[in-house]
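wait is this the right file?? whatever heres the structure
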């Protein structure tokens, strides 16, 4: 690798200290660096042409937004953690020099992470690397959510919502909602209810070939429900009673650069110790 694009979350690096440090390191070692401080300009900026790798400075949320904005490119992402607890952002800011050295020497592994595709009844299709969350919109009311798997009825959930997550997203909202942690390179679909009003509801793991359909029925008292389908925490679609969203494994993937040779269990142990 020689040519890099730096995508910086300005709220995490307001003075550009870390961004400038990485840029200087790359240039001193004969590489090229293009800075994109506004994440949404990453795709339209001409400087991304011919880029070998995008260095994403921020937290996991910054990397998820970058993955969505660069969906049509084949540029792999490496997260540099300027946040708190980062599972996707592998490199800590104090280790950037060592990380750049490895990239320039091609000492890395590229992983292709599965993504989700969510298609609403209008035919609009959106994508997520971490998860698609169906949750209430507005007032604090319990949702009724009807789940089908491969067009067969599974269950009516009475909960704050449901999460459909990838293995990459298993350490995100899914984990906070009591869902299982899955090795990120696996190919699975996770269905986790959010605060279900029952004592025996658990997460369910499905094969990547399965299709999960979430239908919004009427509320318990017969009122129309208005909910949100949230893609990776930032891209939202409004759903109403009678609407459906079909969720499946996408044909698209996100390239994630890994420099760390430690096993997933070792990394997980460290993250859990930091929490």
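ok assuming it is, sequence goes like this
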């Amino acid at each position: 690798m020689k040519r890099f694009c730096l995508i910086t979350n300005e709220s995490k690096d307001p003075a550009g200290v870390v961004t400038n440090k990485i840029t200087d390191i790359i240039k001193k070692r004969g590489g090229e660096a293009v800075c994109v401080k506004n994440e949404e300009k990453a795709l339209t900026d001409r400087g991304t042409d011919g880029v070998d790798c995008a260095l994403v400075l921020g937290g996991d949320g910054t990397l998820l937004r970058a993955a969505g904005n660069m969906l049509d490119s084949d540029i792999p992402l490496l997260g540099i953690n300027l946040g708190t607890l980062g599972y996707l952002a592998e490199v800590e800011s104090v280790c950037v020099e060592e990380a750049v050295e490895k990239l320039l020497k091609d000492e890395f592994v590229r992983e292709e992470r599965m993504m989700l595709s969510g298609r609403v009844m209008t035919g609009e299709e959106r994508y997520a690397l971490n998860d698609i969350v169906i949750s209430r919109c507005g007032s604090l009311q319990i949702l009724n959510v009807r789940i089908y798997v491969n067009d067969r009825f599974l269950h009516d959930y009475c909960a704050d919502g449901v999460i459909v997550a990838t293995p990459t997203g298993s350490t995100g909202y899914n984990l906070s909602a009591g869902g299982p942690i899955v090795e990120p390179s696996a190919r699975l679909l996770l269905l986790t209810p959010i605060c279900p009003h029952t004592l025996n509801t658990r997460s369910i793991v499905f094969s990547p070939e399965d299709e999960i359909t979430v239908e919004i029925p009427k509320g318990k008292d017969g009122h129309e429900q208005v909910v949100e389908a949230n893609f990776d925490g930032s891209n939202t679609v409004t759903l109403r009673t009678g609407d459906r969203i079909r969720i499946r494994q996408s044909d698209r993937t996100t390239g994630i650069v890994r420099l760390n040779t430690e096993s997933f269990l070792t990394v997980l142990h460290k993250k859990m110790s930091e929490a």
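The first helix runs from residue 17 to 28. so i think its the right one actually
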